[in-house]
Structures
1.
Amino acid sequence: MRHTLLPLHERIVLRREYYIRALVVLFFTLSLAGLLGIAALFPAFSSASEAVRVSREAVSSLKKSKTDSGLMALQQEMIQSQGVLNSLGSRSEVMKTGDFIGGIIQIKGPLRFSSIAIGQISSTTAMATIHGIAPTRDSLLAFKSRFEGLTPGNKVDLPVSTLSKSTNIEFTFQITQKFQ
């Protein structure tokens, strides 16, 4: 603005007028954003107040209908829930899938697994089918011996055809583990 033909006094007035107009536009934008924010929160406020009203009505109706039949129904439901919890707690010998997979992963060594499918044969025996790639034949045989040595009754069904190659062996075998 130094090279304008306006005198200094008019340039100062023009700058002041520019700043005032910029402030007016800024305040208008902020007030419009505030109004839109309030309008956007209105549906959430109305649904929350409706939920509060419904829950208060439910509590007041429960207080009014505190009869023996309501208490009996609650007691029967508690007895059923306790039975379910007892049955779940008594089955401690059932296979835990996470422990089974964790045991397999801990002893896998250099083998790379692409998939593991697990099934339960009985309450104390589980079977898994494992697909993957072994870097050498010896690493595959070492996994077999490590797994069978974990607990008595563990078994690895390793097909002879997978041992035909000596490196980069694609394998599929089934393992069976017994739980105590």
Note: The chain has four helices and four strands.
2.
Amino acid sequence: MSKPGYFILQAICFKAQGDIGPLSCYTNKREIVMFLKAWLRDPASSYQIAHRNRIRACARNWQALSSQDKAKWERVTKVLSLYINGYNLWVCMSMNLEARGALPTLNRQSHIILTLPPIE
């Protein structure tokens, strides 16, 4: 009797997580779990499309920043021991208008002046 493919993967100590071809897989404490990838049947809603476009705009704005400005955002996260990187802080400030209120505090505590990302 032949063994399924995931037994072979376990035998060679392969740890899988994510999509491999048509399969989605992850490793729990005991085994590799594999199943056929579930494809979306319905098209995205207008809200989902708008949200994805906002995230894309944040990424484009980050790419448009100068390397000095990117370094400032990264430095603030290091100086303040935040558990995120500069890009994540940028996205947070871009996507969440309430988080923008924290920018003066970040500037004051880090002694680094950040400029606000454009509102998307």
Note: The longest helix spans residues 46-64.
3.
Amino acid sequence: MASIYDGGRNLPIELIDERHRDLAIKGIDAATARDRKAAEARAHNVETVAEDARRTLRDKLGAAAVAELRAAQRAERAAFAKSLEPPKGMGVDRAKARHGYRERLDAVAKRLTIDPAAIKHGLHATNAKLDAALGVPPKVAPALNTADNFERWMALSPLHKYRLDLGVRPPLDPADPGAFQVVGPPFPSGLHRADNLASDNFRIGGDYSLSEQQGAIGNIATLDCNDAGSFDFAQSIVDTEFIFVYQAPRAGRVEVIIDAMNLFGHDDLRFEDEWGWSEHWTQQYRYFSLNAYHPAMTNRALASVSEFYKEGTDGSFSVRALTPGQHYYSHLVTDGAVAAGDTFFVGVGTRSFDRSRANDVEVHSKSNFIWLVRSVEIRVVT
């Protein structure tokens, strides 16, 4: 099993006045330690569940039967791939060729007195444990399409009478500690980090967009499994965010309103049954995020903007999740409170949460979302 936590590059502490750096550094360290601890605990819990699933399979079938079955699968996969090679493979019906592959493996299972239904039932019971070990995607308040919820948008902030999306920045009244401040673009800095966890047969890949000058931000996440065993899985949690410095004018929780235009949003998934006691599911979730790098914070605040879920053994999907050119907004509040005068980093951006479970099913999953963040309003609420 591969577990990779990439914390990304360091935050630009030089942007904060030396008088306030101690608190800012404590906030950075606390956020990094929190995320790394969660990643390590998740990897440990998942490995425990995976080993339990492998043990269950060995106990039900016997080590010799498992080894013989896997050897037969490897041989049939190689033969199937060779049958598609030119020149004889040109024009071969892939579905018919795979059907023959499955029939021969069914014969092997029958000879070994393997009951696929019983094995599938045993492995299926492990899925709930895997779900808990990976960590369920958070169910949070949704982001909203601005045009369809215009009255709610206007009521959120008195600044919405201005064209914030075109760069209009109304003057801040220093006498009003409850007033919204408006940030970026351009943003001072950016940050990208990934928390990836995968079994041996899955590969996790991807890329990201982060243009502080224009406000463009996004994630691409890929989960690929060409040769699934009985218990394969992958999960990728990716955070990409713009970073700026904020000084709290009063004590309370940090509130943020993010206005972003969708440039591209697609969920793509293809999966194909290989053989056996097959099952599969894939989830792709997208969020707007707020992360205040302050010691009092215990987690990111998230707003759900897109959800995609499919299960089964054969299928192909390419879904446009959102409308390019439309504005979407999220209203987020931190779980912890800051003190008046505290100076710290704030990150706003997007989180990708993609995961897949494959049991003798080939899987290719890709999510691709790009945003143009037009404005960020921030204040402290008591």
Note: The longest helix spans residues 21-61.
4.
Amino acid sequence: MLHVLKTEDWRKTPPLAFYFMPLHLAIVDVRKHLLHMNELGILRCKYIIEHNEELQKKTMHMVKMDLTAQWLAGDELKQDQFKFMYKVIKIIYDSALKDFLLADNKEVIEIVIPNLVAYHALLNIRRIRL
């Protein structure tokens, strides 16, 4: 869980920040709750998670955020692919096709995006060889 948050410059990369920030905030929230439980002492709080509904809810939320972050950008390859797709979709989003993209237009999804992905993949291959 903490491995993905050790990704370099994730806060400056919009697609990673969008999914990593909720995970970071959930971890901080659980940590604060555990520290507060420790301050209250043994007799004032419930350490058995089945009986501590608030801690259980915060922990479940944290795990859900982690699953999403791991699924989308859990390793370097996924992060690279995620950033690449973000750049491609952002080109369409910043163009006149934005309304069609947001409306899930079939032509944009089935024709424009794959062609743009192929074009940018070829550009990246050419840059690597030079």
Note: Residues 14-40 form the longest helix (27 residues).
